[in-house]
């Protein structure tokens, strides 16, 4: 009987595309290891942020890259089979991924994979999303996932009446950390101008005037642009989605990251802009405020969702793509005693 397995070249392409997944501060805290026919996803300890001591945000990031891998594989006719946290003695081992052929690849599979490369975290103000009831239904179903998947998340949309309370929670989370040197040093590190493979690019940050028009957002170091962008939008009119889990195990958090990926890609396919938010959940007081708004015990991540700007005369209306690590630093092949880069560009990349 023939054994159907993806080729190394397929794995290289899937991993490279998957690594465009969103992550906290674009830290990309994951590492892929190919061994014994399976692909292992691990936390990369060199890329964990100090202000995430529980590793919750890192696990959400790993869940997002795991779903992106599944999207990349599905576009070429393969389905991933995920074994979550397979070694309880190894907290860095997030998932083992196997593969099985699909019977048919739809146009939607390919469109979703293409959306990986066009999705951005957009911190600028949004217009209200058009036809929101229909979009909300699509995003809610994306969060739920397929019936045969274990990665569902609870999907809630905050009412406009709750927006004032959420904005207060956002300001409170920032105020409580205004003297936290470690927190601000880390933000400076991940937004520094020297990063060419990780961190948040300068063009994705907002100026002081732009930030004042977004009532719910993390306060990054202020940048200066030649002209403020989207000045035609006086105030952010986004809808805010909250993804929660029924319990708070490590697997729940990883699965929420997968749901986040599905929601972001579905929004991108619907030509909606998005921006994931976690700062209001990093401080107990503001996290409790979010809990009270959605009546859920375990909110994990928020997402601003809005309409793209349609004004072509505005400078840089869409944020630039975030930097990504070369694939050699995110993935290795283990074959016997040999360790090789799972890289796409051969001699262009150094070997470990």
Automatic annotation (TrEMBL):
For molecular function, the Gene Ontology terms on record are: oxidoreductase activity
Origin: domain of life = Bacteria
Q: Which NCBIfam families match?
A: Rv3131_FMN_oxido
Q: Which InterPro entries match?
A: Nitroreductase-like, Nitroreductase/BluB
Q: What is this protein called?
A: NAD(P)H nitroreductase
Residue ranges of coiled coil: none
């Amino acid at each position: 009987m023939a054994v159907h397995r993806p080729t190394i070249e397929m794995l290289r392409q899937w991993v490279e595309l998957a690594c465009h997944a969103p992550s906290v501060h674009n830290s990309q805290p994951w590492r892929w290891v190919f061994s014994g026919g399976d692909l292992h996803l691990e936390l990369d300890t060199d890329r964990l942020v100090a202000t995430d001591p529980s590793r919750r945000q890192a696990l959400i990031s790993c869940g997002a890259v795991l779903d992106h891998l599944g999207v990349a594989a599905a576009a070429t006719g393969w389905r991933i089979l995920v074994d979550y946290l397979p070694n309880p003695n190894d907290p860095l081992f997030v998932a083992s991924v196997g593969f099985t052929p699909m019977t048919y690849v739809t146009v939607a599979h390919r469109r979703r994979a293409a959306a990986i490369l066009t999705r951005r975290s957009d911190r600028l103000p949004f217009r209200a999303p058009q036809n929101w009831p229909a979009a909300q239904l699509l995003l809610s179903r994306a969060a739920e996932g397929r019936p045969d998947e274990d990665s569902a998340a609870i999907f809630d949309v905050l009412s406009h009446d709750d927006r004032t309370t959420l904005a207060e929670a956002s300001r409170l989370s920032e105020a409580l950390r205004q003297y936290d040197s470690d927190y601000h040093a880390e933000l400076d590190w991940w937004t520094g101008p020297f990063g060419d493979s990780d961190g948040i690019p300068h063009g994705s940050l907002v100026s002081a005037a732009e930030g004042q028009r977004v009532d719910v957002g993390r306060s990054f170091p202020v940048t200066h642009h030649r002209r403020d962008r989207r000045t035609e939008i006086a105030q952010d009119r986004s809808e805010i989605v909250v993804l929660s889990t029924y319990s708070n195990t490590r697997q729940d958090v990883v699965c929420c990251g997968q749901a986040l990926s599905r929601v972001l890609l579905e929004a991108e396919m619907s030509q909606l802009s998005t921006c994931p938010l976690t700062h209001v959940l990093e401080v107990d007081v503001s996290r409790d405020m979010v809990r009270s708004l959605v009546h859920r015990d375990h909110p994990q991540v928020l997402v601003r969702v809005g309409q793209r700007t349609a004004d072509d005369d505005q400078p840089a209306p869409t944020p630039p793509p975030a930097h990504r690590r070369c694939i050699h630093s995110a993935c290795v092949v283990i074959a016997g005693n040999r360790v090789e880069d799972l890289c796409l560009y051969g001699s262009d990349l150094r070997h470990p």
